[in-house]
Amino acid sequence: MLYHPDKHRDPELKRQAEQLFNLVHQAYEVLSDPQSRAIYDIYGKRGLDVEGWEVVERKRSPVEIREEFERLQREREERRLQQRTNPKGMISVGVDATDLFDRYEEDYEDVPGGGFPHVEINKMHISQSIEAPLTTSDTAVLSGSLSTHNGNGGGNINLLPSAVFYATVGPLVFYLAIQRLVIRPYVRSQKEQDLEKHRESSASDIARKRQEAESAVLLMQESVRRIIETEESKMGLIILNAWYGKFVTDNSQKHERAKVIDVTVPLQCLVKDSKLILTEATKSGLPGFYDPCVGEEKSLKLLYQFRGVMHQVLSPEGEALRIPKQSHRIDADT
């Protein structure tokens, strides 16, 4: 009803309402289909885009869909891990079958209880490898092998600039050390670079969502005015200020800045019967919201009034929120 074009006379508001109304229609198509809704309820919109989810049969229940989806996710993670570490292995076995070919046919008759030739394994060699990227152009190498021959055995460990081999306890321990001291710092650095690349590649998408959020706020103004009048008449719930995004704390680094957006109007629009209830879903998907700091930790900070008393709360991303609440009350001395 909020986004229905017929409810807005201003040509610009009507145009913006049509765009948002189409998004509502797309959401309805997903939520009105039992199978699509089951996927969405479990994993959100990304679940609808996962490679191979279409193999889910239409007759499957939500529980079966969840199991199938998790299986597909595991397969993707395994493929991603293999592409990153490029594991390789080799096992060779030496078999002594001399007795099978050297003996004459009449010799078998002289062997008590048998006639079967003697065949044995006299040597074995095992090696495995896994790659550990250090930089975009260099790859760390840990190599190991295990060999036995006629009852005697040996092994070796090698650190090379191209591949990592492990087959014994020693190479595995060494690899874990490399993992902690080299690979993990590299992965963290890569994540930061990937995050920056993601921001750059999704800049247009972020701008579009910001525009949609700003349009939604404009369309909410009249509804919010009526909601505030109703709440004020019964000393109900009034959202005084609300911010969403990344806040600067005492633990923040010196160069960090707050990255927040004002969401006072969108939250007041969600107030019903002097209550505001938010689920555990990401808040950036709420009407009038967008993500001001992609990939970073976010919170929702509210200053609100209920029964004429000031309240304040800081709600981390991904946590459900229900207000008003006694524990949010600000003492008069504060």
TrEMBL record:
Query: Is the keyword Acetylation in the record?
Result: no
> A single Pfam family, by name?
DnaJ
**GO CC, one annotated term:** mitochondrion
- From which domain of life does this come? Eukaryota
Q: Tell me which InterPro entries the record gives.
A: DnaJ-like_C11_C, DnaJ_domain, DnaJ_domain_CS, J_dom_sf, Mito_inner_membrane_organizer
Example GO biological process term? Answer: cristae formation
The protein's UniProt keywords, in alphabetical order, are:
Chaperone
Show the PROSITE patterns listed in the entry: DNAJ_1, DNAJ_2
Q: Which residues form the J domain?
A: 1-44
> What is this protein's record name?
DnaJ (Hsp40) homolog, subfamily C, member 11a
